[in-house]
Amino acid sequence: MEFNEIIYQKYNGRAKITINRAQKLNAFTNLTLQEMIKALVDAWTDKNTGVVIITGAGEKSFCVGGDQSIREKGGYTAAASREEESTGLGNLPLANNHGLLLQLIRTIPKPVIAMVNGYAIGGGNIIHVVCDLTVASSTAKFGQAGPRVGSFDAGFGTAYLARLVGEKKAREIWYLCEQYTAEEALSMGLVNRVVPPDKLSEEVEKMCDALLAKSPTSLAALKTSFNADSDAILGIHNMATIALNMYYDTDESMEGRNAFMEKRQPDFAKFRK
Ligand code: 2NE
């Protein structure tokens, strides 16, 4: 399989997806998301694969969410959709591709480990949130950006996040858009383990060995049963995706995006109702 924006490797029972846009802090485009979807489907159907790793290229970032430089009024540009034709998955809006990716991470009947090597911000944070397990570098930073940049990732990004960290903390994370260290993430239940950056791969490999030594059917059944309790969140997520696509068509949303790109504070006052 050939990819442009991810690196996909399979070895020793692992399928490893590396978001390969380090020059953009691994912000995703539609093509990135579609390639991740294709890789996950391959990992699902490959009998030699028992565990999936998701990470980001370079040392600075896991993923910082949607690529704001290709966002315009109405959403992320159609320019990228020509490239998407190469995946054969059509040109759905970015928010829909993101939702499909989250759903696939949850439903693939194999454990998915997020190996968070730096920034996990916005839609990038939510990718790791829905993974089964998260191992973070001590240099990682976590947070949401939506209300600052004119976006929101509700559903799994809110209701499921709240199950991990609690309602108050989840609201704080979204409303204030602050960043949290890996140690803070560990103490709030957002990640499983924190290790020094030079031990990150080693720790994830150990975790993969431990998972691959277990019964695959037992793990699949456990994963599915853990999901059952939160599967209804998909309905909220899909509703929120419809709302997000409409929001992307507003001046209010563009003020957030433009302020970020112009490196200034957004002025949302005129949009208060
Ligand atoms: C990521 C963060 C916290 C990093 O801050 P800092 O201070 O370390 O770096 P800086 O200078 O802000 O960013 C470095 C370069 O990366 C680019 C910046 O524009 C900057 O470029 P240059 O000035 O060097 O040319 N960059 C950072 N994030 C980017 C992004 N997402 N897209 C394109 N370029 C990006 C800080 O940069 C930050 O808060 N970034 C914004 C994160 C963000 O807005 N994410 C999207 C949220 S919405 C979303 O993820 C989403 C969606 O839109 C739809 C569905 C689902 C999810």
Report on this structure:
The chain is α/β, with parallel strands linked by helices. The protein has a single domain, classed as 2-enoyl-CoA Hydratase, Chain A, domain 1 (Alpha-Beta Complex). Helix content is 46%, strand content 17%. It has twelve helices and twelve strands. A six-stranded mixed beta sheet has the order 1-2-3-7-9-12, with helices on both faces. A four-stranded mixed beta sheet has the order 4-8-10-11. A two-stranded antiparallel ribbon has the order 5-6. The longest helix is centred in the first third of the chain and has 16 residues. The model has no long low-confidence stretch (mean pLDDT 96). Bound molecules: Salicylyl CoA. Salicylyl CoA binds next to α3, β8 and α5.
Output the number of helix runs: 12
Report the portion of residues in β strands: 15-25%
Q: What is the level-2 CATH architecture name? A: Alpha-Beta Complex
Low-confidence stretches: none
CATH topology: 2-enoyl-CoA Hydratase, Chain A, domain 1
Structural class: alpha/beta
- Principal-axes geometry comes out as globular
Largest sheet: 6 strands, mixed
Write the H/E string, N to C: EEHEEEEHHEEHEEHHHEHEHHHH
How large is the radius of gyration? 18 Å
What is the mean predicted local confidence, pLDDT? 96
Question: What is the number of E strands?
Answer: 12
Total domain modules: 1
CATH superfamily: 2-enoyl-CoA Hydratase, Chain A, domain 1
Short structural summary:
The protein is α/β, with parallel strands linked by helices. 46% of the residues lie in helices and 17% in strands.
